[in-house]
C-alpha cells in the first residue's frame, strides 16, 4: 500500500500491484458477501426482526477498532483519549444492547415452545 | 500480531457466521444469538490483552478501556432490559446508530493520528543510515489506501448514525415526516458535495507528498530530507470536518422524508451500512474479525432489506425515493371517498363472535400499543372453549417491524400453529365468519389493490373482505400510521368497535361470558 507517487509505475501497474498486495483482503470480502447472503437465505418473515437485531449486534464488532484506538492513544492527548473512550462506550452499547434485545425477542419464542 | 490473537479472531469470525446462520432458524435462533455474543466477547478480550501494533507494543490505557466497556455495558443492559416490547424496533435503531457513531469516531481518531504524524521525520528514520537514496526505491508514507478507508468509514458511519437517530425519533413519534419540494435533488447535491470534497481532500494530502523528480536525483540522504517538507495544510482538516457535517446532514435528509411505516426497511438498510463501516475499521487495522463481522452484516443486512421490501411487494428504490411522502395526495383521495361507517355495540360484537364458527383475528400496531396481547389471548381461549375455530392472520409487515406481531403474540403464549401467514390466511377468509381487526389498518386497506394513486398501491394485503363480517377495533377514525384513509371502514360488511384495544377486549370477554 505504501508506494511513492513519482515512481515509473503506470496507474495500471499501480492498480495491479495494489490488488496483489491486498489479495487476501479481497478474497475475504468476496467470500464474506456470499456467506452473508447464503446464511440468511430462506429465513421466515417471523424472524426478520430478531435477525436484524442479531446482525445489528454483530456489527458491534466495530468496538474492537475503538479499543485499538483507545489503547494506542497518547495518555497525554486528552482529545484522543476522550474520542476513544466515547467510541468504546458507544461500541459496547451496540454490542451489549444488541445481543440483549435480540435475546429478549427470542425469549418469547422459546417460552411458548417449552410449555408445549 | 500475536498468533494466539489470530486464532481468537478466527474463532470469533466463525462464531459470527454460525451465530447468524442459527439466528435464521426458529429452533436455533436463541442459541445462535449467544454463539455470536460469545465470539464477540472473545474478540473483545483477545484484542485488549493480545493486540500488538506494528512495533510490537501492547495496548495501554487499559483502565480507560475497561471503564468504557463497563459504562457501555451497563447502559446497554439496563436499556435493553427495560425497553417495552412495543419500543424494541426503536431500540434496535438506536443501538445501530451507536455502532455507526463508533465507526465514525474511529475514523476521526485515525485521521487526527495520521494528520499529526511528522512524515519528514518518518522518512528520516527509515533512511538514516543510507548515504544516498535511489529514486525508484524511495518510499514515502503516503498511505492513500488508509485515508480512503478512513473517509469511507467516516461517511458511512455518520450517515448511519444520523439516519438511525432520525428513524428512532420517527418510530417513537418524536419526529414527524418532513417533505419539501426537490428534497431528492438536495440529497443528491449533498451526496455529490461529499464525493467532490472527499476527492479534493485526498488530492490535497497526495499533493503534499509529491516531490518533483529533479529534487531527488542522486542527492545524498541529508540533502534530500532538506528538500522534502511534508506538512498537511489546514485545508485538509477543514475539509475533513466539513465532510463529517455533510455526512450527518445526509443521514438526516435521507431518512426524514420516508414514512414511519417504512422505518423497518430503513433501519435494516442502515444496519447493513454500519456493517460496511465496521468493515472499514477492519481494513484500517487489518483486523479480520472486524472485517468478517462487518462484511457479513453488510451483505446479510442488504439481503434482509430486500426481503422486507418484497414482503411489502415494493422495490427498495420505491421505498427510498417514492416514499410515503404523498400524504397530501392520500388525504385528498381519502376525502372524496369518505362515506359513512357503522358502529357496533359491545354486546352485539360479543354475540357475533360467540356464535361464529370461525374467527380470524388480525392484529396490528394498535394491539401492541395497548399492550392488549394477553387480553387477546384470553378472548381466543374463551372462544375456543365455546367451540369457535380461532386463528390469527399475520401480515408480514403488521406492526412496526416484520415479525413484530409474532413476537408480541408469542409473549402471551399464543400457540405457534394459531398464527397463519398472509397467503394461508387469504385462502381461509372466504370460509371465515368474523374477522376481528385489532389496531391494524394499512395491511387491510383495499386501496393497495384498487387505487393506483395510493402510496401503498401494490402491497399485498389481507383480504378480510372475503369474510362474512368484519369488526374493526380502532381508537378513532383517524387514518393509520401511513396517513392513508382506509376505505374498508366504510364498506357495508364492516362494523366499527371504537376504543382502546385492551379495554375493548376485556369488555368483550365479560360480555361473551354472559351470553
From TrEMBL, chain A:
Q: Sorted alphabetically, which Pfam families does this protein's record hold?
A: PNTB_4TM (PF12769)
Give this protein's Gene Ontology molecular function annotations: NADP binding; proton-translocating NAD(P)+ transhydrogenase activity
Intracellular or extracellular location(s): Cell inner membrane
What membrane topology was assigned to this protein in its record? Multi-pass membrane protein
For this protein, the Enzyme Commission number is: 7.1.1.1
Q: What class of enzyme is it?
A: translocase
Chief localization? membrane
The protein's matches in InterPro entries, at most eight in alphabetical order, are given as: NADP_transhyd_a_C
Coiled-coil segments: none
In terms of superkingdom, the source organism counts as: Bacteria
**GO (cellular component) term, any one:** plasma membrane
Q: Which reaction does it catalyse?
A: NAD(+) + NADPH + H(+)(in) = NADH + NADP(+) + H(+)(out)
Q: Using the record's annotation, list all stretches that form the NAD(P) transhydrogenase alpha subunit C-terminal domain.
A: 26-110
Alphabetical GO biological process terms: NADPH regeneration
Keywords per UniProt: Cell inner membrane, Cell membrane, Membrane, NAD, NADP, Translocase, Transmembrane, Transmembrane helix
What are the transmembrane regions?
25-43, 55-73, 79-102
Q: Which PANTHER family match?
A: NAD(P) TRANSHYDROGENASE, PROTON-TRANSLOCATING NAD(P)(+) TRANSHYDROGENASE
Its function, per the record, reads: The transhydrogenation between NADH and NADP is coupled to respiration and ATP hydrolysis and functions as a proton pump across the membrane.
Q: What is this protein called?
A: proton-translocating NAD(P)(+) transhydrogenase
From TrEMBL, chain B:
Q: Where are the transmembrane segments?
A: 6-24, 33-51, 63-80, 92-109, 144-168, 188-210, 230-253, 265-285, 291-309
Q: What membrane topology does this protein have?
A: Multi-pass membrane protein
Family, according to the entry, reads as follows: Belongs to the PNT beta subunit family.
The cross-references to Pfam families, in alphabetical order and at most eight, read: PNTB (PF02233)
Q: Tell whether NAD is among the UniProt keywords.
A: yes
Q: What is the lineage of its organism?
A: Bacteria, Pseudomonadati, Bacteroidota, Chitinophagia, Chitinophagales
Please give the chief subcellular localization of this protein. membrane
What would be an example GO MF term here?
proton-translocating NAD(P)+ transhydrogenase activity
Q: Where in the cell is it found?
A: Cell inner membrane
Write down the EC number: 7.1.1.1
Query: What is the name attached to this protein's record?
Result: NAD(P) transhydrogenase subunit beta
All copies of domain NADP transhydrogenase beta-like, residue ranges: 7-510
Catalytic reaction annotation: NAD(+) + NADPH + H(+)(in) = NADH + NADP(+) + H(+)(out)
